[in-house]
């Protein structure tokens, strides 16, 4: 699914829109887990190519979490201006939000 507005109710799993959006020079990505779970959080371009991995199948406790993306790819280079997709996956949940990078 695509998470588009606000956070889900307390005690649920969600991916909130990043803020600030547009990103310049970084953005915070908030997410929540209803119960402890391994999660993956990655940045993709609009063609579906993975640009960066922010969380790689890490076990996280239940509750709200946040991760900062600095607008860099997996090699540490600044990404080009444009639309990117933040994808969150757990065993039972998947969501995507858009983030705009402006230089």
- What is the topology, as strand order, of the major beta sheet? 4-3-6-7
pLDDT averaged residue by residue: 89
Low-confidence stretches: 1-8
Oligomerization? single chain
Terminal Cα span = 29 Å
N-to-C SSE string, H for helix and E for strand:
EEEEEEE
Sketch the major β-sheet: 4 strands, antiparallel
Number of β-strand runs: 7
**What amount of the residues lies in strands?**
over 45%
Percent of residues in helices comes to: under 10%
Structural class: mainly beta
* Rg from alpha-carbon coordinates: 13 Å
Question: What's the number of helices?
Answer: 0
User: What characteristic shape results from the CA principal axes?
Assistant: globular
How is this structure best summarized?
With 103 residues, the chain is mainly beta. Helices cover 0% and strands 50% of the residues. It starts with 13 loop residues before the first strand and ends with a strand.
């Amino acid at each position: 699914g695509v998470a588009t507005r606000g956070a889900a109710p307390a005690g649920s799993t969600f991916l909130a829109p990043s803020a600030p959006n547009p990103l310049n020079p970084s953005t915070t990505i908030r997410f929540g887990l209803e119960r402890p779970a391994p999660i993956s959080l990655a940045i993709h371009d609009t063609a579906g190519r993975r640009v960066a991995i922010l969380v790689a199948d890490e076990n996280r406790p239940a509750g709200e979490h946040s991760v900062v993306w600095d607008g860099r790819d997996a090699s540490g280079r600044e990404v080009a201006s444009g639309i990117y997709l933040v994808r969150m996956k757990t065993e039972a949940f998947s969501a995507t939000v858009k983030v705009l990078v402006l230089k």
